[in-house]
Amino acid sequence: MSTPIKVHNPATGELLKEVKVHSNEEIKQALEKGHLAFKKWSKVNAHTRSKLLKDWSRIIQKHKEEIAKVMTLENGKPLKESIGEVDYATSYIDWYAEEATRIYGRTIPASSESKRIIVSRQPIGLVAAITPWNFPAAMMTRKAAPALAAGCTFIIKPAEETPLTTMRLIKLAHEVGIPQDAIQYVNGNGPEVGSLFTDSEHVRKITFTGSTPVGKTLIRNSADSIKHVTMELGGHAPLIVAEDADLDVAVTQTILSKFRNAGQTCVCANRVLVNENIMDAFTEKLTKAVKALTVGNGLDSATDIGPIINEKGYRKIVGQVKDAIDKGAEVLAGNEYDANEEQGYYFVHPTILKNVDERMTIMEEETFGPVLPIVSFKEITEAVDIANNTPYGLAAYFFTNDYKVGTYLYEHLNFGIIGWNDGAPSGAHVPFGGMKESGIGREGGSEGIDPYLETKYLSIGNY
Ligand code: ADP
């Protein structure tokens, strides 16, 4: 028997639960079951699948407070954010419950009178998902909901840090009547389960949210059996504040983008580029607002910023801040820590760094923490060059009320998600995903169900 996964509360270090790790044999059996279940689930009519998804959403909403509490306990995010995440998670189920009944085909005019051509869409098969710890509910539903809606069966390995929310959601799916084998979870170590998924002949698609290096491994390992892949990988979002920007809007939205989930999201603003003429006015307002944020246990209603998920994440953040200060960055707020290695909790106070430049690691690497580096620019073209100077291409934000500057930025920024005067552009109804090394494919919107469907076309001759 493998050692169970120990799930800790990152705000206190307290052990919450020990979760059973599935053996390789059990995982293989689960894959086999998921494959067999596909034969039945794919034949359930779309209206029934839609209704079951709606029931799943409803029962999750009924248990919203309880699920949110589990999420805050295992992830650390403030309870108000966990409640928001449950809503966000069910919005994907609601959206794809609707999309289930709109998987249309088409007819194509044939090149001969004696032929007819029909194009239809069919589910691709068993989908295996691997998810991260930062959004334990939503990262799963934005994959599971379109998969089930399309008629695919689904198996997930949640992050070792936060398996409890996912397990609870899947239990609720079974309670409303989604077949046991149509949606399953397995727990285990990332690389091992990842290899079992990619090696399995039963899995037709891998969908992953996590770091770019792991995404590359999964793509490589999926090549042998040509599995479909959807990859939501790392980001390094620039946020540009143009000279004419409404500074109050820019400050509020920057805080929304940067400090949600203690800065531990892949779309968090990671580099703030500010026109030099408004630098002082912007940083003054921003610093005041950031200093008003409260750091603490997510269960405390006053908390805006919870703990960092683990020591590895904490060390990375502290290292980036130190590197920036050593190379000349000025601290406007934060650079304060409340960490206890023995107990196992790590808090980083919201930090603003000024005079940041491209020699600093923070300008290259994703931070995944509440640290906001500010870079100054003169011309908007220079801001675009700095913004695009990254292998990542997930989200970018800009603030301007000048439509010419705005359209220039929209057209020249190489990112999949753009927020114009908007620091929180995500939603179930829009296509979320990145360019370059930030990923392949989109989740959400009408685009989000396509990756779970194959196109099949029929040519009828001799008509
Ligand atoms: P982070 O460093 O933020 O945890 P990862 O990309 O390492 O990001 O983890 C995201 C998810 O990927 C987790 O569920 C983790 O268990 C899983 N994982 C980690 N390494 C691998 C791997 N080699 N193959 C498949 N999954 C992995």
TrEMBL record:
Species whose genome carries this gene:
Aquibacillus albus
Instruction: Name the family the entry cites.
Output: Belongs to the aldehyde dehydrogenase family.
Q: Which domain of life is it from?
A: Bacteria
Task: Tell me the lineage of the source organism.
Answer: Bacteria, Bacillati, Bacillota, Bacilli, Bacillales
**Any one Gene Ontology molecular-function term assigned to this protein's record:** glutarate-semialdehyde dehydrogenase (NADP+) activity
Q: Which PANTHER family match?
A: SUCCINATE-SEMIALDEHYDE DEHYDROGENASE, MITOCHONDRIAL
User: CDD domains given for it?
Assistant: ALDH_F5_SSADH_GabD
Spell out the protein name for this chain. Aldehyde dehydrogenase
Q: Which UniProt keywords apply?
A: Oxidoreductase
Read off the InterPro entries from this record: Ald_DH/histidinol_DH (IPR016161), Ald_DH_C (IPR016163), Ald_DH_CS_CYS (IPR016160), Ald_DH_N (IPR016162), Aldehyde_DH_dom (IPR015590), Aldehyde_DH_NAD(P) (IPR012394), Aldehyde_DH_Superfamily (IPR050740)
Q: Which residues form the Aldehyde dehydrogenase domain?
A: 4-457
